[in-house]
Amino acid sequence: MNTMQLIRTLRASYAFVERNFNLVRRYWGWEAVWLTYSIATTLSITYIGAGMEAISGAQVDTNYLILYLLIGTMVWRFLAIIFDNISEMIAWERWEGTIEYTLMAPITRFTHMMGQTVFAVAYSLLFTLVILGVVVLFFHLDLSGANLWGATVVLLAGSLSFIGLGIVASVLPLLFPERGAQMTNVLQAVFLLISGVYYPIEVLPAWMQALARVSPATFVLEGMRAAILRGVPTAALWPYLWPALLAGVVAVPLGLAIFHQAERYAKRTGKLKRDG
């Protein structure tokens, strides 16, 4: 790819980023509702840690519990938003009535996906930072011993894996116009259950613990907690980093290949425009 081709590819990808932010601005009311809901649920979960001493009647380290639950909540929120924005892109195209124009446009699917990915990460980061800013107003967070750089590296590695998983899941709304979007929510719920978002995976049944070790979110959450709660150095976070990176390296090209085949099938069978 020469310089001019690269510039055209980047401009085409940026067009999807700009379009999606324009959609966010158009539906700002829904975004405000979703943001309010997310802040409320995050605070509710975090207050479980604050109230654990009163619930159990025993002395516990509530500050540790608050931070433990907050890390799980914020990391999951970040990863889930990335997953949602990528996996539901076909549903949004149908909603806007642009699916045929987008999938018939003279661009590569990689260019399309790259634009969707950049938007998903940027939007998720902005959304999560706003929630974190509100939470800080309610709780005093002691991060003096935290390895924030290491936590950032782990989170970025997790982003790659959930980008790949989102691309794989985006095939469902393409092949199943009636219920495909709901099927992606089921996948997300399974990851929420097995990945130890709000509890250590050791409390799960043995067979679910085995599934947890397949989820890249498990390693992201464990790595984030190791970096923030215990201040583990970045070099020592490799056992959490490589599984998340491996999942991304495998899932992204696999997702693109699966999507390509699903797109050809949808075009051949007339599923693109169908919404019921």
The H-and-E topology, N to C, reads as HHHHHHHHHHHH
Shape field: globular
Q: How much helical structure, as a percent, in the residues?
A: over 70%
Name the poorly predicted regions: none
Instruction: Give the overall pLDDT as a whole number.
Output: 85
Q: Tell me which oligomeric state these chains represent.
A: single chain
**Number of self-contained structural domains:** 1
By secondary-structure content and strand pairing, the structural class works out as mainly alpha
Q: Helical element count?
A: 12
Largest sheet: none
Please indicate the percent range of residues in DSSP E strands (runs of 2 or more). Answer: under 5%
Terminal Cα span: 41 Å
Rg result: 20 Å
Count the E strands. Answer: 0
Q: In summary, what is this structure?
A:
This protein has 276 residues and is an all-alpha fold. The chain is 79% helix and 0% strand.
Descriptors:
single chain, 276 residues, mainly alpha, 12 helices, 0% strand, globular
Descriptive report:
The protein has 276 residues and is mainly α. It has one domain (13-269). The chain is built from 12 helices and no strands. It has helices at 3-26, 28-56, 62-87, 89-96, 99-104, 109-138, 148-169, 171-175, 180-194, 206-212, 216-229, 238-269. Helix 2 packs across helix 6 (109-138) and helix 3 (62-87) runs antiparallel to helix 6. The longest helix is centred in the last third of the chain and has 32 residues, at 238-269. 36% of the residues are buried.
